[in-house]
Specification:
The structure is a homodimer. The first copy, chain A, is an alpha+beta fold. In chain A, about 40% of the residues lie in helices and about 25% in strands. In chain A, the strands form two sheets. A three-stranded antiparallel beta sheet of chain A has the order 1-3-2. In chain A, a hairpin with a 5-residue loop joins strand 2 and strand 3. Chain A is globular, with a radius of gyration of 18 Å. Chain A starts with 13 loop residues before the first helix and ends with a helix. The interface of A and B includes residues 99, 112, 113, 118 and 126 of A. Strand 6 (about 110-125) of chain A pairs antiparallel with strand 6 of chain B. The first copy, chain A, binds a DNA duplex through helix 1 and helix 3.
Amino acid sequence: MTSTTDKQTTRQTGQRRAIFQALAKDKTALTAQELHQHLTGVGLATVYRNLQRLAEQGKVDTIRRPNGELAFRVCGVGHHHHLICRSCGRVVEVHDCALEDWSRKLATEHDFSAIEHQTELFGTCGACANKTA
Amino acid sequence: MTSTTDKQTTRQTGQRRAIFQALAKDKTALTAQELHQHLTGVGLATVYRNLQRLAEQGKVDTIRRPNGELAFRVCGVGHHHHLICRSCGRVVEVHDCALEDWSRKLATEHDFSAIEHQTELFGTCGACANKTA
DNA sequence: CTTTGTGCAAAGGCTTTGCATGCTT
DNA sequence: AAGCATGCAAAGCCTTTGCACAAAG
């Protein structure tokens, strides 16, 4: 079922490169629209299509903003969470996850299986706190 | 600033009652559209407006589904999280939160303040696991 | 009677999709 | 040359908003 010649169709195009690079450089998580604004000569639909693909391939992480928008970010490998400054949008990857044990415990207690958690942490970073003060 | 006679404008209407009751009875978190379907004689806009208000007043909790839809639920008081069956949608309130200490620690480590976390846990409940098996 | 709530339909914002053309391989 | 990728515009969803009418207090 996973062996039918599996053509890993993914052509190298300028737009694709541009999108990924822009994402890789940015310290914040960007939405398709933001990305589209920052780029030139890349259609919005193309941005959406590529982000979707990158996410499927696991090359970027998705972050759901409080208002429902979906943002994307190039991340390190392994399970981790995001500590996001609600002012400047800067993202800090947190690899120290406290939820593993917790969710295992909850699984037992409530007879649930295959528990997944998707947590975003929103706060104010030091820099922004100073600006405001 | 919080003392200008503060009219707690909130009239009692049949629709309002119907929406809240439907929500209170349901074991799952419902979206405005789902709620609108289940009810009769209540406009969709009215459902949206009331849910929004209820959420602002803290009378219902909001749950963001993986696909971005916003669902609502009448919950117990105090900080807690939701363990949601991805099959039947049943929601279990989890009052035992493991993230408090963790986020405090992260705040210190990364110089962030006012960290808030919004975590939803998705899994498969025992009943549904059996059905599938 | 005054003010808030409701319904309907229009409008908005984000995302996806159809189709013809262009570019990668 | 063959097929995926792109662009543009249209269409889809979910949600919000404007306005006239109905209802609550």
